[in-house]
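In the previous lecture we treated proteins in isolation. Real proteins rarely work alone, and many bind small molecules. This record shows how such a complex is specified: first the sequence, then the SMILES for zinc ion.
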Amino acid sequence: MANIKGRGTLPERTVALYLKQLGIRFRRNVKSLPGQPDFVVSSRKTVIFVQGCFWHGHTNCTRAKIPQTNSLFWSQKIEKNRTRDARTTRLLRKKKWHVLTIWQCRIRDKKRILTHLKRFLTPQIR
Ligand SMILES: [Zn+2]
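The predicted 3D structure, ligand included, written as tokens:
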């Protein structure tokens, strides 16, 4: 399983493409914010994390199954990541950011992701 952080992973590139299609302006890997979010949409005060299901312990996801070998090691490691993710989310919310998580396993469901992003990121028309 490759390292998920860094600029060019496929899930991140896919999300970047979706955002562009929606005409949403964003910044990448913003170091000044907690957790260094993958995407920051300042105009909507929203950050987006693209999370690998295994490393971030996606609940009830087949990709997040703990290997049977060294299972204690893996479950502790992933629990630590989850705790850190939760703390990051808390810190960001305290600073009034909306936090959106996109799981790796959902990326290919383009229609669903676009709907989700639109609901989160485009001004509500009433
Ligand atoms: Zn998943």
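Summary for your notes: The chain is about 40% helix and 15% strand. The pocket of zinc ion is lined by residues 53, 58, 61, 63-64, 103-105 (CB under 6 Å).
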